[in-house]
Amino acid sequence: MLEIARSEMIQIFRNRLVLVTGLVIPVAAGGYFVYQHEVFSDLGGLGYIAAIVMFTVLAFGLYTTAVTTLASRRQNLFLKRLRSTAAGDAGILAGLVLPVTVISLVQAVAILIVLGAVATGPAQLPLLAVAILATTAMMVALALATAGLTNSPEHAQVTTLPVSLSVIAVASWVGIAGTEDLALLKRLLPGGAATELVVNAWDGGVPLADSLALLPITMAWVLVAVALAARLFRWEPRR
Amino acid sequence: MPASPVIDVERLSVTYGDFTAVRDLSFHVRRGEFYALLGTNGAGKTSTLEVVEGHRRAASGAVRIFGESPRDRRAVRPRMGVMLQESGFSPDLTVRESVGLIGALSGRSDDVDRVLGIAGLTRKAGTRVSQLSGGEKRRLDFATAVYGGPELVILDEPTTGLDIQSRDALWAAVDRLRDEGSTIVLTTHYLEEAQQRADRIGLMHEGALHREGTVAELTQALPSLISFVLPPGAPEPPTVGALNGAFHIETFSLQDDLYRLLGWAHDTGVELRELQAGPTRLDDVFRAIGRA
Question: Record's PROSITE patterns (chain B) (predicted)?
Fold first, then answer.
């Protein structure tokens, strides 16, 4: 797995298009939210900014790059090549997505640290960490599922839009409007419960038990994404 | 007690929906043997190989590699190198990085520079895969297959797109592997490559194995051919019919019949123009299967 991860890391830094679209732009967008935190905190508070930063990096950095990478590796039969070795399927997939996952997590955490430094830090750090990790797992699994429906890297520009735009939209809706109205619907939408978890963890003021009640929904989305990935992921191009 | 075969295929069937690509196929490959699996386009060779390589599930039947399931990668892959029909490498990795990566994942150990030398890629070691020609990518494919000197090497159309020097170098490397005891399985459209090298050949047609044996065994069932053209006005040899002025004699006694023909020509003073005589070739066997 680590050999594959190392080769993927090399390729990320050799491919300027991936580097810019997958890594630089999400950081720039996240950085903009932090830079304008006073404006955006008026909309939904610092918790909203933390949630939107997390989803911007994980949706446009991790998710989109992972789908593009997997589609590309399948299209040029590199996945088939890897399966001709002694490496197992789980190890191959883990190696392929590990670098972009680690990079995205580091980016998200770094931006949130800056947000905490220039404004106010999170009230419940462990809860924030759980929310970020669960959302990361969900986005990786959704990337595997979406890759199964994506024929080429070019096709990924289209197939990634529904999920990436949906989670950003849900995060904005939940983060700005709160969950006083339509609470169940908002929490059941992809990223809805995770957004509320991040908002609660950053802003505080919500009993821990109430926040923990959001975890099963967040984890349920992780399971749904994993189930979709297991059903939809393909190792070879359609012929 | 005979050694267990390296590859053991028993009543294999492969289907794609309602279409049966391979039906009831059985063959085995012995340790150290060079076995060529040949067939027309769509004969089912690639489907068979994909099951043997562990890339595809069989609809029915059993395939064992070294006595193990081909899908048990940890058990099988360290002993088996595969040269896929189509290359699959990351374009942004260099040749050296690609061989190093696939080699490390193969479960075998080797020196990357040595393997690059075998494949004639030493000068391309630092070149990205995206900048390689089609022939160079085939050589890269070959390099990853022979990394670590595997006990079994599967070569799927290995020389397609290679120039003559690269072909010679590839076959020299395969010969060395054989000398070291490796078992070789080959599919190719270049029949002369199989005819020259294979210990045994399996001929597939429409998903089934039609013939199997050594080249001599496969060709002895078909007659050899003598052909020639007579000058205008020359007498015809006895018991031979002409087609458009050209004579074609099919014979199972090539030497005797050729001797008699040349004797007749000498006695009658007739020049046999464009005279050709030769044993049955593998492509004749192929054509006969296609006509059947």
Answer: ABC_TRANSPORTER_1, ABC_TRANSPORTER_2
